[in-house]
Amino acid sequence: MARSAPAVDRVPRLGRLGGLELTARRVLEGLYAGRHRSPWHGSSHDFADHRAYQEGDDLRAIDWKAWGRSDRLLVRRWHDDRQLPLLLMIDGSASMAYGDPAKHARAALLAAALGLLAIDQGDAVQAAACDQAVAWAPVRGGGGAAPALCGDLGRGALAGAVDAAACLDEAGDRLRRRTLVAWFGDLLTDPLPLAAAAARLAARGHEVAVFQVLDASEVRLPAAWGLSRFTDPEGALPEIAADAAAAKTDYDAAMERHLAACGAACARAGADWTLCPGDREPVDLLAGWLARRRGHR
Length: 297
Hints:
Blueprint: H1 13-16, H2 20-33, E1 47-52, H3 64-70, E2 74-78, E3 86-91, H4 103-120, E4 125-130, E5 134-136, H5 145-153, H6 164-174, E6 180-185, H7 192-203, E7 207-214, H8 216-219, E8 227-230, E9 240-243, H9 244-268, E10 272-277, H10 282-295
Parallel strand pairs: 3-4, 3-6, 6-7, 7-10
Antiparallel strand pairs: 1-2, 4-5, 8-9
C-alpha cells in the first residue's frame, strides 16, 4: 500500500543519518546491554556426555567427580560449537520504498545490526539484494568487515515485484553449509509460497528467520488521512480513492488476518516469524527475537 507514489530517494535516509554502520552499532549497544550474546549456536560449555579416557586426552577434560564415583577415568564431551554462517536477504521490490524512513532502509538497519552482531561473534555473514535477480555480495567476516557489509546491505533497485520464494530457493541451491537465512521484506502477498520455500530450506538443514518489515500506517490505517488516493507501487492493482476513516475498520481487520496468516504459514514451515512495524524500536525487535531464539534451544 502507498498513499502516494513511493519516493525512492528516501531509501538511503538511515544511511545518511550518521552512517548505517554507526546506527547499527547503536542498536548493538542496546543488545549488548541486555546481555544478548551467542544467538545462533550452542555454547561450548553445553555438556553432552562422557566417554572413556584414552591416552593423549587433555587431562583437563577428565571428570574427576565421575572418577570418584565409578573409579573409571571418563572424559567430558561437549556439544559441537561450530560457526553458523548468516545470510541476510533483503526484499528489493518497489513496495519497500514506502514509508519515511523507507521500509528498505529499516530492513537494512535491522539486517546490519544482526550482521554486525554475528561478525562480532566470529561468524561469517553474507548479504543478498533480492531484486529481479539476486545480487550476492562476498562473504564477510573478521576485522574490517562491518563497513563492507553495510555497503552491501544498502543496495537494491526497489522496482517491480520480487519472487521471494525463488530467491530463497536460489539460496538453498547455493549454500553448502548449514546456515541461518534471514529474510527481510514486507510480505504484502500470499505468504504460502515464501513459507514453502522456507520449509525446503529447513529440509536441507538450514534455519530460517522471516522479518516482516512494515510501515506503521500499513499495520493500522490512519483515520486522520481522510480522503486519500492509494496506489500499488508494483503496478498490479489500479489506483483507488477512499476515505481512510470509513475504511479503517475493514482495513485493520483484513491486515490483522493477513499478519496472522503470515505468522501461521511461517510456523508450519519451521521458520521464525517476527513482525517489524515502523513504530517499534529496532533494538526492541531484535532483543525480542534473540530472547525467543535462545528460548527455543
